[in-house]
Amino acid sequence: MSKQVEFFFDVGSPYSYLAFHELPKIAARRGAEIKWRPMLLGGVFQATGNHSPVTIPAKAVHLNVDLERWAKHFGVTFQMPRVFPINTLPLMRGAVAMQRSGPKQFHRYLAAVFAAMFEHPRNLGEQAELASVLEEAGFDPAQFVALINDPAVKAELKDTTEEAVRRGVFGAPAFFVGNEMFWGQDRLHFVEQALA
Description:
The protein is α+β, with helices and mostly antiparallel strands. The protein is 58% helix and 10% strand. The protein is built from nine helices and four strands. The mean pLDDT is 96.
């Protein structure tokens, strides 16, 4: 496939969760490949001066309504976690580590983590809860800890996050078709147009 869309995401972003479900449908329709780009949203926020919408009271009130509307529109289950936001550094290092292990492992990991974040919410900021989710998905929690402490994994996540910032990313999800950036799951129709 010559057509490609880059998907910069963080599993702690509910809008990335929505895009995780919708983007593959668009890619299939347009015969495009998705290049999955795990980044650390907290690092992007720090570098750009952006903040989570939950830190802005008026936005926070509207956030659940907006997310529920989009979930219904995309036909996916959605529930906002009670503990939100969480530090996603271990989860995103995990995404990088699983991506290095191959597409099957990577997608199984993402499906499990996104489901535990936004379908049947569990507090993945707690080590014991994360270990339980990993075990249920067929991963070894002890091996996971070793993987996310691999210096190469840490460096790759840092590099991808810095690359995202250099290219103009300020939030998640962000998509690139060629050099053109689209931000937010509500711009996916523009992504599809760019791939058409």
